Prior knowledge:
By secondary structure, this protein is mainly alpha-helical. It has helices at 2-30, 54-68, 77-96, 100-116, 153-172, 179-196, 203-225, 234-251, 256-262, 264-279, 292-298, 303-323, 326-350; strands at 33-34, 50-51, 123-125, 132-134, 139-144, 147-152.
Amino acid sequence: MQLNWVITWVISGAAAAAAAPLIISLYQRLGWVDDPAKQKHPKVVHTYPVPRGGGLVVSTGIIAGVVLLNHYDPSLNGILLGALLLLISGTLDDAYNLSPYLRIVINILAAVCVVLSGIGIDYITNPLGEGVIFLNQWPISLLLFNHPLSFSLPADLLAIAWIVWNMNAVNWAKGVDGQLPGFVSLSAIFIALLALRFIGDTSQVTVINLALSVSGAYAGLLLWNKYPQKMMPGYAAGSLGGYFLSVLAILSGAKIATVLLLLAIPTADGIFTLVRRLAKGQSPVWGDRAHLHHRMLDAGWGKRRIAFFYWVTTALFGIIALQLDSRAKLYAMMAAAIVFTAMIIWFKRSITSSKPPVLDNG
């Protein structure tokens, strides 16, 4: 069984890595490249035209791992349908730069696909006491085209909010070469390791196979996105990363705290970004140049160093998450938030007004 899981990771990674040059060539022929000479947005930090297309790469890897290796489970129908919506919208965004408001609507629709398939956050472990907090209250049943559907408002609304939030938080953390595919791949590995503890539950086999397929696919993308990048993740790979990690957290038994800890830095950066933009009267969905990786660049950090920081912190938090209970994870997340705040203050003070931004250092 363990050998099959290794094969799943390898095949997913190989399929994604093999698809990348084909997609790069296609995007270049179509002119779907992110050209800093034309893209004047302040968040742009690369200095030469780079094709996006990471969503097609990781989707190829995930399909190879889940479908071609006979890991497909009918319970994945809604999940894969939502992923397809994100892939289509992300590919269109690669070509036409869709409005972020439209992307949010599509995010919500993708999350609804998951909920309609019967996946919700029915309970969470009580971090401040014993037992669990049940959320599957106030059930609602209806018929859609003669197909019965049931909802549980707290559980399903929380699931939608959880998935949409992580799609955006993860997507925001893709500003430099190798940053996003590295920490997404590692996060999925740790989810698989967590699911291994409950292998007696047959549903966890599906979680492990899907997690390893996601991890391998993003590792395959990393080969082409590492410094100096030959392709960018694009919106599709960014949103799909948050989407699959969120869904895996639910499928593995509402391990929300574990994924929050794995994504501690992107989550803290996302919260800080929302608060900062709203405090300035700005739209919370329009990008800017004030994410943590931007501050690191402006303070003189190289792109490889920033990506390595995200990988190492994800790995450290993953190791910690495997050792702690829910209450301890809450304390660990609070500590991570304090550390993040200290880093933001430190980097802000390190940036002098006379020092130009570092755009393409390694």
